[in-house]
Design goal:
2 domains, six-stranded mixed β-sheet, 14 strands, binds 2-acetamido-2-deoxy-beta-D-glucopyranose, transmembrane helix, PhoD-like phosphatase metallophosphatase domain-containing protein, membrane
Amino acid sequence: MATTITTLFFFFILFIAALAVKEVEQQTSLEQPIISRIAFGSCANQSAPQPIWKSIIDFNPQVFIWLGDNIYGDIRRPYKLFGKERTIGPWKNVPRFVPASETEMQLKYHIAKNNSGYSLLRKKSQVIGTWDDHDYGLNDAGKEFSDKIVNQKLMLDFLDEPQDSPRRKQAGVYASYTFGPKGKQVKVILLDTRYHRDPLSSDGSILGDSQWTWLKKELNGPKTEITIIGSSIQVLSNLSATTGPLFYMESWGRFPRERDRLFKLIASSKRNGVFFISGDVHFGEIARYDCANATGYPLYDITSSGLTQAVEKVIPEPLAFLVEVAAWLTPTTMRLISPNCRYRSCTYGQTNFGAIEIDWGVTPVTVKIEVRDVNGHPATSVNIPLSELQNQGSNDKNTLKVAELQRHCTLEINLPWITRYRLAFLFYYFLAVLLLFVVVLTYAAIKLSRRIFGKCKFD
Ligand SMILES: *[C@@H]1O[C@H](CO)[C@@H](O)[C@H](O)[C@H]1NC(C)=O
Ligand SMILES: *[C@@H]1O[C@H](CO)[C@@H](O)[C@H](O)[C@H]1NC(C)=O
Ligand SMILES: *[C@@H]1O[C@H](CO)[C@@H](O)[C@H](O)[C@H]1NC(C)=O
Ligand SMILES: *[C@@H]1O[C@H](CO)[C@@H](O)[C@H](O)[C@H]1NC(C)=O
């Protein structure tokens, strides 16, 4: 009898132990599932319809990354050339953008979070993110903006950051995440390009000292197969170099020394598998900077912008093609031009999101990144074998032809001036023709009226 009980007891213990092992196994596999689908996006007007969430949910991402302008928090006044409050022109007397109050910001976040599509995504995917100017609180703002402390709290509330998270105590919303089991790890580093940023034309700092120290530690830390660096503003493409003096945009390119520092840090960290994702500009594009002497392997920057905001939406539909023509006319050195693009310019000016798919099952492991339209169809895309993103100094993996390589290693500012300012020349040319036309017409009208008037007098 005693032996039976002992045996039974023994089996019972064994059973419990087996259960416990199973539990632990499940927990580790629960904690570190293989990540193979990541979506990202930026620029979502909380008050506008947001049909794109449906396609994002259909992509079934395990992680969704916000890249800024997650809400439009600041208040935008209309363009006004005349009147009491003039927001444009040489007589401008009030700023076009003003910060909203804390209550207004809270309300806007509430509307964004309550969106039915986004709510569904939050249930299915882990949502992480950083911010850009409009959710930071003011268009084009940097470190001088005083509402940043309050707004950091609101932004972290929106992302459900735990109350005791160190991210709530630091100056800025930068953060890093590591997903996946050993051997299949994806690190996501999210930068804060606002909290510490010096004025736009200062060529000063974007990240500030504390964030640089942190970033260096993150890049030099444990290796991962893939490292995605999320920046609200574009890292590679320097569109301002070819759209100026007509208009300028924010980008790392506007801070050349800071950008070099970033490339050098990546190179010196000897970290493989790094690429950038970005937002902000209201169109999608994929850029590649390929100077073996600068970084050791090609750097990619996949821009998706925006979820609701898009350059082709700001002008009436029949004229939308003009945006495409302008994009095509803007010379580019970094942009990836491929026959697979929807448009010849390889930019995409309608609403879009970014879709990253990692195929861990092939050798070499391959990352497919697409900028997808509102229906989930790709508008521009790239396939990057991880073997291409290895700092081993060998060139035989390179997928580009020599001429292409040369282009991707040229800065926009080094283009011949006649090419670089093509858009501005055309613009001013059309303006001149228009002006001439108006002058001739006015002159003819005066002449005609004089003749008629003169005739009347004599009659
Ligand atoms: C957001 O959408 C609303 C409603 O369509 C519109 O009135 C508002 O101007 C938009 N804001 C921005 C920044 O586009
Ligand atoms: C939240 O969304 C639901 C429907 O999606 C709507 O009925 C409700 O009024 C919204 N609440 C607020 C406070 O916006
Ligand atoms: C980007 O363009 C701006 C404006 O032309 C220029 O001042 C800056 O030096 C450029 N940056 C780089 C890295 O080429
Ligand atoms: C890398 O090479 C390109 C072209 O060969 C050159 O223009 C550039 O200055 C070089 N950069 C560095 C950091 O040596």
